[in-house]
Amino acid sequence: MDFAQTSVITTLPVMEAFYTIQGEGFHQGRAAYFIRLGGCNVGCFWCDVKESWDADKHPKIAIDEIVETASKEPGRLAVITGGEPLMHNLDELTYRLQSEGFETNIETSGSFPLSGHWNWICVSPKKFRPPTDEALANANELKVIIYNKNDFAWAEKHAANVSAECKLYLQPEWERAPIMTPPIIDYIKENPRWELSLQIHKYINVP
Length: 207
Fold this sequence. Notes:
Number of helices: 6
Protein name: 7-carboxy-7-deazaguanine synthase
Catalytic activity: 6-carboxy-5,6,7,8-tetrahydropterin + H(+) = 7-carboxy-7-carbaguanine + NH4(+)
Oligomer: single chain
GO molecular function: 4 iron, 4 sulfur cluster binding; carbon-nitrogen lyase activity; magnesium ion binding; S-adenosyl-L-methionine binding
Shape: globular
EC number: 4.3.99.3
Number of strands: 9
CATH class: Alpha Beta
Strand order of the largest sheet: 3-1-2-4-5-6-7-8-9
InterPro entries: 7-CO-7-deazaguanine_synth-like (IPR024924), Aldolase_TIM (IPR013785), rSAM (IPR007197), rSAM_sf (IPR058240)
């Protein structure tokens, strides 16, 4: 992996940053430091962090300060999320985090060009702004939010464009989880390469 510092970005709009348990996907259950960046134009109507969409509403914090604060926690898994984090160049942030011993994970729609140095890329494709071929080719994890039964076909469309090693997850949209979890379970039983992802942090009431 090339650790060359190619970015001149020194600040990023941070909506929030917190130490918690990763609640979703492959790394579920691990202690993780989340850095939620402001800015998103994907526009999911069911988004549960719409307050992240306008980057100008969130303070621009120096990358030095972001990394210093993260380093005070004992965990060394950093998850960069949003909003849509790839609206920003993430080379410097991830370089600095990895230099401090962090694994760097990203949760992205994949709709913008990749930047940053990553140990794990989770692509969660959205119909409102589809992922790039580059994002799908580099995905370690494909996590598809299931809002209705038409989303299974959407999931398969994108599963056809990731690597054979990419982990595949179906996750019910939170408000519709009681309705959509049973058909997801049935679908996984018929298509066992998929796995179930649940937002366990919401069930156990942590950030």
